Amino acid sequence: MLYDIKLVIRYDYATPAGGGRHLLRLLPAHLPGRQTVRSSALTIHPQPVERRNFTDFFGNAVTELSLPAGHDAVAFEARAVVDRLPQSLPQTDGALTDLPALLSGYLSIAPDAPHHFLPPSPRIPPDAAITAFAREVVAGHHGLIAVTEALGRALHDTLTFDALATTVDTPPSEAFAKKTGVCQDFAQIMIAGLRGMGVPAGYVSGYLRTLPPPGQPRLEGADAMHAWVRVWAGPRAGWIDYDPTNACFAGEDHVTVAHGRDYGDVAPVAGVLRIAGGQSSSQAVDMVAL
Amino acid sequence: MDPLPLPLPPLLAGYRPLAGVADELLAPDGTVRPVWAGLLAHLSATAPEGWAQRFARGDQYLRDQGVYLRHYGESGPAEREWPLSHVPVLIEESDWGDITRGLIQRANLLEQVMADLYGPGRLVTEGHLPPALVAGNPEWLRPMVGITPRGGHHLHFVAFEIGRGPDGRWWVLGDRTQAPSGAGFALENRVATSRVFSDFYPGAHVHRLAGFFRSFRNALMDLRAEPDSRVAILTPGPLTDTYFEHAYIARYLGFLLAQGEDLTVSDGRLMIRTVAGLTPVSVLWRRLDSGWADPLELDPASRLGTPGMVSALRDQTATMVNALGSGVLETRAFLAFLPKIARALLGQDLILPNVATWWCGQPAERDHVAANADRMFISPALSTRPPYEDGQDHRPIGPLPDWLAEHGAQYVGQERVTLSTTPAFVDGRLRPRPMSLRVFLLRTSQGWEVMPGGFARIGRGGDAAAIAMQKGGAAADVWIVSPRSVEAATLLPAGGEVARRGLSVLPARAADNLFWLGRYVERTEGILRLLRARNARLAEGGSAASPLLSGMDPLLTVLGVDPNEGIPQGLIQTLGAAIYSAGAVRDRFSPDGWSALADLDKTMRRMAQRVTVGDDAARAIGKLLRKLTGFSGLVHENMYRFLGWRFLKLGQHHERAMGMTAILATLADPTAPEGALDLAIEVGDSVMTHRRRFALVTARETVVELLALDEMNPRAIRFQLDGIRDQLSHLPGASGRGSTVALSRAVAALHSRLDRATPETLDTAALWTFRADLAALSDLVTEGYLR
């Protein structure tokens, strides 16, 4: 499936900012066999005084930039044409009970090694309540794909999607206690549950095509950047993507931008700037199937 | 206990090392080790009372230098006397040679481990290090993976904690590679101890430390990219418990002391914000934990870092001593694997063993720890704290094997170490106390150089676990004693080097603190003068309700001072603000100046307890004024005219002009009560001058002439403006900032207004307007130089 993706993120400051430095992870990743980027471009207003690209530890493309002092608004605009290829689930996943042995035999700290995704990460500390919930709902399942699906469905059934209930900094324990949140909360709760059971799991940011209801035109700009989960299903199956917000494995509707241990590793816009007053921001995404 | 063989000096009566513990002073057969003979004889030649006097000499030195032990508990920062154990630890040169070889081998090993962990990761793939200990390690910083440090080396300055076991062998207790502290304290301990033993130390063949610091300075200078770039010491700031050491060593080595906010990354280069604009810094000696160094790519919660720091290192425009992420080498569980890693990487066994350690994430090791639990110390596997700071054994209440089976990966078992003892003076007698040493290594172009000495920790009681200074332990100097005489090195460089150092660079934050130090010190003086005059009048029978005194009160209340307190809290707070500013520039500030302010503060607080308004307060304040004059004298007479001094003076002139304008506007107002003009003259310290220049009667014209327009009177407004103009003319104006031009214009405008003014035209309204324009200068200074 071929998509034309457009994202605009805008920040407005009450008083002019005194210069700032940002890292952007906004453009779709090139993932051979999974998604192919035909073209992509990133436009920034105002014009940065410095701009460069690098690849982070997990292999994500990052744009690093420095903005001039005295700007009172900044806009980041990402555009890409991406071919998302269909994929089927692997047949040879590992078993939950075999994980300790599978992991201790996996001697690597390369970026895709599962060991990075099992320990607590800055935004996803261990959580007893989530782990207990996870253990309960996966009881009777052995294969890691089945375990993933059981936990994902249970979370989807338990949590209510509410765009206003949480913020970007709400910890998973709090969102879980409230039983509500957005895709970021769904993903971080699921990761906490998986890690609690000894399953390596990571965080994926990307774009999702929202299918229009039958007979209605697609609403432009209604979408935001999306987030889902990546699960290590054993050395042979490798990584599989699951979207707990929509209770499905990530498929042709999901276009990956970046992945890491939690939101902090993939934040679309990370930045440090000197501002005195408040700020407001807005985000708009169009993902149109061509 | 067996009786000691004779003859031992009486000083050693009762000196009994514990059974099964090595002692530095006494050999296993109970005889005095030869290296101690000289010091013992020297000690024996003086009565114990004499020693108290000599020890006091060392303590006084440390107090004068401002060396205190700081800790940050629940009730905020607290200080206590630096706990110096006056008897040094003596180690024979030949013994030291073995330690040196072992530690150099270990430093080389750690460099290779570091290069692998941030490079190919072969130690993990080849099974020498479990992946969980790296991937789950908060000190392993993923953004640093794949970044090759400029010059190729990750480690430049490391320390090792070592101790001597019961068999007399030295053991490595822990690796300190993140940002090891203590080198500056080792130097201070040395100076203090050499003062205690001033008539013995010079001839005692003790290896000097200065040569090591000279090498250190040269090594850091040689790491620079270009000759015009700077070396800076990166500190977390005055709220860190080792800030004194950072400031001290910056002063001693002549390097800039920078905080994260002083630095910025511009076009991929690391720069320091100075009063003359951005200046490149290409070497940072980091005293800040890695994670805090860059909020953008490392810990986003950090307020101590520099956004873009990692980017500059990625571009290899700066050298970090040590590379960010070097804290991973301190991981306690690594001690379990380093002996095998040494064989794998170096093809050698470790010359100095480290504490036997077992990681409980492996079944066989876990079983071993469970089976030998009674002689094990169980603690977190990923801890990077020095062993003596982690006194608590982590052990469950239930059965150990079950607990380890579930949580083992998070723990290590370590053999309990019995440290050797060394003599310390306790209640007038020598007693054996447990000891560990911190030894420092520096990378030079010729390889690792070991500081001949170090930092010894001495336990308070017999318990080896209570060696931490926060828990009542003490610090001691370490003497490496040669059989021959040693080179008496100093830090002063040999010829030629001095000339190349050029003009100093003044970070904008330091200038800001000096400017405000000047302002607050001057404000303190202004308050003191007003209070003295007021209390003197009260003492002479005046009433607080009289028009004169109630008329001057606004001059004090506007500064937050309640005139009805003997020593007002507002006064103490104003001086406190000066001390806070001074504390942030300890590296640019003489110990004498610091002591003068601290002494003033102490006296003021003591007086505040009992001093009452009136005569009592007038006399007390007179005393405080004389003490403050001592500080001003130091600034004027002893401070080199660096740029920093100019900002201090700028602050003083500005504050004094502000104060005097307010005094004249209030006390020289035509409606002011009788006696107000005399009061103005007195507060303006110009009684005698007025008498000499004018008639005995004070009139508004003469007072305004003397305190506002007289360019010869150091209290006059005109004199302050001259001073401001003079200081500004020495500042770097060509920094390309438009605001420095605006500042000079504003000063010139005020100046010409005074030139044209007469006592008649300078009426109360004109004075208040003048003062408002004067106040705006402070913002222009900030705008032009201090951002």
Detail the topology: elements first, then pairings.
The complex is a heterodimer of chains A (290) and B (787).
Chain A: E1 2-24, E2 35-45, E3 50-55, E4 61-84, H1 99-104, H2 128-138, H3 144-158, E5 160-161, H4 172-178, E6 180-181, H5 183-196, E7 201-208, E8 226-232, E9 239-243, E10 248-249, E11 254-260, H6 263-266, E12 269-273, E13 279-289
Parallel strand pairs in A: 5-6
Antiparallel strand pairs in A: 1-4, 1-12, 1-13, 2-4, 3-4, 7-8, 7-11, 8-9, 9-10
Helix pairs in contact in A: 2-5, 3-5, 4-5
Chain B: H1 37-44, H2 48-65, E1 68-73, E2 76-81, E3 89-92, H3 93-117, H4 122-125, H5 131-135, E4 157-164, E5 170-176, H6 183-196, H7 210-222, E6 230-234, H8 243-253, E7 256-258, E8 263-266, E9 269-274, E10 277-286, H9 309-314, E11 319-321, H10 338-346, E12 357-359, H11 363-371, E13 376-380, H12 400-407, E14 411-415, E15 421-426, E16 429-444, E17 447-450, E18 455-458, E19 474-481, H13 508-539, H14 547-557, H15 569-583, H16 591-610, H17 615-638, H18 643-667, H19 676-683, H20 687-693, H21 700-709, H22 717-729, H23 738-756, H24 764-785
Parallel strand pairs in B: 3-19, 6-7, 6-10, 10-11
Antiparallel strand pairs in B: 1-2, 4-5, 4-16, 8-9, 9-10, 12-14, 13-14, 15-16, 16-17, 16-18, 18-19
Helix pairs in contact in B: 2-6, 3-10, 11-12, 13-14, 13-15, 13-17, 13-18, 15-16, 16-17, 18-22, 18-24, 22-23, 23-24
Task: Write up what this structure looks like.
- Chain A starts with a strand and ends with a strand.
- Chain A is built from six helices and 13 strands.
- Chain A has two domains: 2-84 and 268-289, Sandwich (Immunoglobulin-like); 96-265, C8orf32 fold.
- Chain A is globular, with a radius of gyration of 19 Å.
- Chain A is an alpha+beta fold and 290 residues long.
- Helices cover 20% and strands 39% of the residues of chain A.
- By secondary structure, chain B is α+β, with helices and mostly antiparallel strands.
- Chain B folds into three domains: 1-207 and 329-355 and 417-490, no CATH class; 226-317, Rossmann fold (3-Layer(aba) Sandwich), CATH 3.40.50.11290; 509-785.
- In chain B, strands 3, 4, 5, 15, 16, 17, 18 and 19 form an eight-stranded mixed β-sheet that branches. In chain B, strands 6, 7, 8, 9, 10 and 11 form a six-stranded mixed β-sheet that branches. In chain B, strands 12-14-13 form a three-stranded antiparallel β-sheet, covered by helices on one side.
- In chain B, strand 9 (269-274) and strand 10 (277-286) form a beta hairpin.
- In chain B, helix 15 runs antiparallel to helix 16, helix 16 packs antiparallel against helix 17 (615-638) and helix 18 (643-667) runs antiparallel to helix 22.
- Chain B is elongated.
- The chains are: A alpha+beta (290), B alpha+beta (787).
- The interface between A and B is medium-sized, with 28 and 28 residues.
